[in-house]
Specification:
The protein has 242 residues and is α/β, with parallel strands linked by helices. The protein is 35% helix and 28% strand.
Length: 242
């Protein structure tokens, strides 16, 4: 179980301070696929980075009741559109590096995903296209052997067909002890992929429902998100009337 308790994050600069997260409480169990949704600036990336320990924050982040530290951080992996790989190394060198540092590295899965995305293994990553780099970032996160895989807009730069196929592959390869926390704006695309939706707005969780609960209510995920954010369907028409 990954637990986030009363998490708060404030950014400080010479202009003053800005509160990014307000008393965020969240529990995610093994095997869940959770979508994290929110407008730009809602706090999605900040939340993920706080969980990973990349940002100092207030509150508690626990794995099975214990704080995340150097002994347990390997149970978390991260795929980010900001990229965390070494650009001068090849994909094969990354695999060797990960095998050296993570005894749980999934080499067979690595080979399968490299073939799926048709990525060259002996080319330095700086020579990959932006889309290929994002694909490789996801591959590393999925192959580290972590129980909790955090993804922040991992499909930027990938065409819709690649994304659709990847969702299907992902559902096929994930084990019951692997959890996905996916921050994305692609609400309608991931509706059939996720099992739970967590909504952030201005640093606060304003919604948390399973897709089964939404189905029982007769609601589509996109409708639930629009309702929670108070989306006004007439906003475009109102501007065009001016």
């Amino acid at each position: 179980m990954l637990e986030v308790k009363q998490l708060q994050k404030t950014y400080y600069d010479r202009m003053g301070s800005r509160q990014a997260l307000y008393d965020v409480n969240l529990e995610i169990g093994l095997g869940e696929i959770v979508g994290l949704f929110g407008e730009n600036g809602a706090g999605k990336t900040t939340l993920l980075k706080c969980i990973l320990g990349f940002l100092p924050c207030q509150g508690e982040i626990l794995l099975d009741g214990k704080p995340v530290d150097r002994h347990t951080i390997a149970r978390l992996s991260y795929a980010t559109c900001e990229h965390s790989f070494f650009p001068n190394l090849t994909a094969e060198s990354h695999a060797a590096f990960y095998q050296m540092h993570f005894g749980t590295f999934r080499h067979k899965r690595f080979r399968m995903l490299m073939d799926f995305f048709e990525l060259p293994g002996k080319v330095a990553l700086k020579n990959y296209s932006a889309g290929q780099q994002n694909q490789f970032e996801v591959i590393l996160a999925l192959c580290q052997g972590a129980g909790y895989i955090l993804m922040d807009e991992p499909f930027v730069g990938n065409d819709v067909f690649n994304r659709e196929d990847f969702y299907k592959v992902l559902l096929g390869i994930l084990g019951p002890d692997e959890t996905i926390l996916l921050a994305t704006h692609l609400v309608e695309e991931v509706e059939r992929f996720i099992g739970r939706a967590v909504l952030l707005r201005q640093g606060r969780i304003i919604g948390d429902q399973t897709t089964l609960e939404l189905e029982e209510q007769g609601k589509a995920l996109s409708a639930y998100v629009k309702e929670a954010y108070g989306y006004r369907a007439d906003r475009v028409g109102r501007v065009l009337e001016v």
